[in-house]
Design brief:
By secondary structure, the protein is α+β, with helices and mostly antiparallel strands. It is built from two helices and ten strands. Among the domains are: 1-43; 49-182, Beta Barrel (Lipocalin). The strands form two sheets. Strands 1-2-3-4-5-6-7-8 form an eight-stranded antiparallel beta barrel. A hairpin with a 4-residue loop joins strand 5 and strand 6. The longest helix is centred in the first third of the chain and has 42 residues, at 2-43.
């Protein structure tokens, strides 16, 4: 009897030990996962986010692409230019890319983190001129990003200041034009067509009429000379010449 009790006690102890071990393992796993998450969150560069460029007309979203930083245009104040034409990558030297919409265009790439801070050795594309440059990013304040584009030597480059977007911006892809629109000129509205139509002046020359002798301009009757068949103007009656006075013949007197 005693042996049976001892056997049950040993079994319960084993089960309790297994449960404790499983609980401890789950607890350690949870703590380890939280630590990894916290470390990953702290590893996200502060440069990641949406930045309004120096012109205030566009915004770029900087993200992590692999182990580098990249950036795409996500907001535009205007989706057409001053002529009403859709915004496309028209100045790109590669003709096959000239129909790419500016909205969503990648303009930053391959930015590597430097040991001394900031990011460098990347590229930036300027769609206004269709050219690419080397680029470096430096966070001078939590909401201020210094963007330096350069050719060759960084200290000879040009620096622009971008500011972090403080509110959520409406995505430009909702109003982004299609690639086909780059090849199709916008249609003029009816009001614009009516406005651009040239009205025929009231004093326009009459249409020329052809005769046997050639092309002769048609004569235009002055408005004051027009009349209807039932009308008779005062000058229609041709006045008859007044009769000449008759001179009396002299009668010879008798002598």
């Amino acid at each position: 009897m005693r042996s049976i009790v001892m056997m049950k006690r040993n079994t319960l102890n084993i089960l309790a030990s297994q449960r404790a071990a499983a609980f401890s393992k789950a607890l350690v796993t949870s703590i380890f996962a939280l630590a990894i998450t916290a470390a990953a969150a702290s590893a996200v560069p502060k440069e990641v986010g949406v930045w309004i460029d120096d012109t205030g007309k566009g915004a770029v979203k900087i993200d992590i692409c692999g182990n580098r930083l990249c950036g795409h245009i996500v907001w535009l104040r205007e989706t057409v230019n001053a002529k009403g034409e859709p915004l496309f990558d028209r100045h790109n030297p590669d003709a096959s890319k000239q129909t790419r919409p500016i909205c969503g265009l990648q303009i930053l790439g391959e930015l590597a983190q430097m040991q001394g801070g900031g990011f460098d050795n990347g590229w930036v594309y300027d769609p206004k001129v269709g050219k690419s440059y080397s680029v470096a990013l430096d966070l001078t304040a939590p909401d201020v990003l210094q963007v330096t584009g350069y050719k060759g030597m960084r200290f000879m480059g040009k620096t622009f200041i971008w500011t972090r977007a403080q509110t959520e911006l409406p995505p430009c892809d909702a109003n982004a034009p299609r690639a086909d629109d780059a090849l199709t000129p916008p249609k003029a509205s009816k009001a614009a067509a009516a406005k651009s139509a040239v009205a025929k002046p009231a004093g326009a020359k009459p249409t020329a009429i052809k005769s046997a002798a050639g092309t002769t301009p048609a004569k235009q009757t002055p408005p004051q000379a027009k009349k209807t068949a039932a009308e008779k103007m005062p000058w229609d009656a041709t006045p008859k010449p007044a009769p000449k006075p008759t001179q009396a013949k002299a009668v010879p007197q008798a002598q």
